[in-house]
Amino acid sequence: MYDIDSVLKLAQSQAGYREGRSAGHWNNRQKYSDQVHGLEWSDGQPWCCTFANWCFSQAGVAVPAGAVTASCAAGVAAYRKARRWTEYPVIGAQVFYGKGGGVHTGIVLKYDDTHVWAVEGNTNTSGSPEGDGVYVKKRTRRDPYVYGYGIPYYENDTGNT
């Protein structure tokens, strides 16, 4: 296992990456699906959750059973089942957005009393959950759109959330 800094550096290094284009439109084709065991099928699909899992996988950080998924809703369920869920920001956690956390996701870089910053795949400059690339987004922390946080298994993790 590796530490939070490894995941954050890797995630931030991807900011600026753009998905493919065909017929003049963004097409959800990206490099991450083929590199996450079990998610190879997801190329061409919405890929925010695939991107987060790619970051954890590449950095050697484990996530709860069922959390390696292209589905935000399934990710939320896996983190909850493993008791790795919180409504408060955690640096290095997977943040989930929208109703039931099933709309969009990213990895928390930092937060303060008002905002949370995350690296998010499949978004854009306006923060849409259907975007064109990887961006660092600043969102209002207490906005109802920010649903909650799943905490991966980091090195020196005490298991307390």
How does this model look, in words?
The strands form 2 sheets. A 6-stranded antiparallel beta sheet has the order 3-8-4-5-6-7. Helix content is 19%, strand content 25%. The protein contains 3 helices and 8 strands, in the order αββααββββββ. Strand 1 and strand 2 form a beta hairpin. The model has no long low-confidence stretch (mean pLDDT 93). It starts with a helix and ends in an 11-residue tail after the last strand. By secondary structure, it is an alpha+beta fold. It is globular and about 45 Å long. It has one domain: endopeptidase domain like (from Nostoc punctiforme) (endopeptidase fold (from Nostoc punctiforme)).
CATH superfamily: endopeptidase domain like (from Nostoc punctiforme)
Rounded radius of gyration (Å): 14 Å
Q: Separation of termini?
A: 18 Å
Low-confidence stretches: none
Count the DSSP helices: 3
Shape: globular
Largest sheet, described in full? 6 strands, antiparallel
CATH topology heading: endopeptidase fold (from Nostoc punctiforme)
The CATH architecture: Alpha-Beta Complex
Secondary structure: number of strands: 8
Into which percentage range does the β-strand content fall?
A: 15-25%
CATH class: Alpha Beta
SS content category:
alpha+beta
> How many domain modules?
1
Q: Roughly what is the average pLDDT, rounded to an integer?
A: 93
Q: What is the succession of H and E elements?
A: HEEHHEEEEEE
Strand order of the largest sheet: 3-8-4-5-6-7
